[in-house]
Amino acid sequence: MKAYLPTPLGFYTFLVCCFAPIAVVVILVESLTSADYVSFPPVGLSLRWYLEIPQRPEFVASLVTSLTVAVAAALVSTVVGTLAGLALVRYRFPGRAVLQTLFLSPLSVPSIVLGIALLRFYATYAVPRNIVTLVLAHTLITAPYTIRLVSVSLGAVSQQLELAARNLGATPWIAFRSVTLPLIRPGMLAGLVFAFIISFDDISVSLFLASVKSTTLPVRIFTYIDQSYDPFITAISSVLILIVAVLAIAIEKTVGIGKLFGIR
Q1: Residue 78: per-residue pLDDT
Q2: Distances from the Cα of 125 to the Cαs of 135, 207, 215, 260, in angstroms?
Q3: What is the CATH classification number for the domain harbouring 152?
Q4: Contact 33/39 with Cβ under 8 angstroms?
Q5: Is 102 exposed, middle or buried (0-12, 13-18, 19+ CB in 10 A)?
Q6: Residue range(s) defining the domain that contains residue 63
Q7: Per the domain annotation, does 121 fall within a domain?
């Protein structure tokens, strides 16, 4: 039997996969310290800094803001992504390629540039910075993911199934709801979760658009680190990590990322 020899690229990929989680593990372990300063390995083991989170109303308010914005942006992005995906995959019309590039363009623009551009736009037209404008900005950066995922799901579904339902007397809406929608639901669900995670973790755009009453948790953490650095910040950062990890596990168990992209 021929022995398997890893390629340089495969070995490099293996090293990256091993190195990437180290920073996350360090933060999680440091958050369990009982000392008043950040240390690794931690001095003692305690949930002291986690228990302090409810006593910081500004962080609790920012967590609620982040959850509200992320849920709203994910829902709007899923609706927009489904409609845009249907138009791009199922129909052929002049300018389709240009429109597809336009929808996916936020992926190629650095987030900090996008944040500055949105801040300039809001300032020029005197648009107030609040949760609504923050949701619109987050929809802009999350919609490309839902469009892409829904498009992949639609590409794997034969349009003949929907046409067969219409030949049997179903209206276009009933054929879509009964045939196409259940088949593309995994892509929609994956897009929903991806949009939530991206919005919930965003800081580049939120940093420019946040206001006193609409400060997201990543922005709150960023400004807190600028002033001080104690184990509390590792505890609140661990909460962010755990929320994202739970969502990632949920989407893998319910949909399967590899299955969605045809990897397995």
Answers
A1: 92
A2: 18, 19, 21, 41
A3: 1.10.3720.10
A4: yes
A5: exposed
A6: 56-227
A7: yes
Distance CA 262, CA 55 (A): 46
Instruction: Give dist(CA 2, CA 116) in Å, integer.
Output: 55
Asked if residue 181 belongs to a domain, the reply is: yes
In which residue are the tokens 């794997």 written? 156
pLDDT at 256: 62
Does residue 88 sit within a domain?
yes
Identify whether the C-beta of residue 45 lies closer than 8 Å to the C-beta of residue 28: no
- Cα separation, 210 vs 195, in Å, equals 19
Tens-level pLDDT at each residue, the chain (264 residues): 455 556 777 778 888 877 878 878 888 888 888 877 777 777 778 888 888 888 888 888 998 999 999 999 999 999 998 888 888 887 787 877 787 777 777 778 888 888 888 888 888 888 888 888 899 999 988 988 888 888 888 877 777 777 787 777 777 788 878 888 888 888 888 888 889 988 988 888 888 888 878 888 888 888 888 777 788 888 888 888 888 888 777 777 766 655 554 444
Q: How many CB atoms lie within 10 A of CB 201?
A: 17
The reply to whether 251 falls in a domain is no
Q: Please give the Cα distance from 106 to 143 (Å, whole number).
A: 9
Phi-psi region of 95 (alpha: psi -120 to 50; beta: other; left: phi over 0): left
d(CA 84, CA 93): 13
Q: Are 55 and 43 in contact (CB under 8 A)?
A: no
Question: Do residues 151 and 87 touch, judged by C-beta distance below 8 A?
Answer: no
Total domains present in the chain: 1
